[in-house]
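Repro:
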Amino acid sequence: MRLTRPKLAAAGAVAVLGLALTGCGGGSGDDHASAHDGTDAVPVAATGSLEHLASEAGCKPNMQTDADTIRQAICKTSDGKYVLATFATDRGQAEWLSGAKDYGGYYLVGRKWVAVGEEKVVAALQDSLGGALEEGSAHMNPGGSHNSSGHSS
């Protein structure tokens, strides 16, 4: 559908901003996602508006995008900066995540919201917002990242 083009443009802008905050997706080998070993596929997560989620996380959001399909703000905590984005639909969130994860980085994912930042920042947010910690896949894309593990000899 042609209606998805504004979503994709907004997704690209958020993904680029996420890339800037995450430093090209490099990270340590720690696996914080294992903190939720329950049988649920997605841990219980906070819900609500961008302002409500920011409040739960102790952030006064600096709004960057306020559109019908996506809203995003930059938040700062003592752990660092992150982007908090909310989506009008589950499908919009899924499409955004699909494209954004190609840039690497770390994503805390809840229902119709995502927080993007460095691993330690989004892992700390998990205490107040819940959600599932996911890692992007920039290290899997040849030729585009700062990681040197892309060649096999």
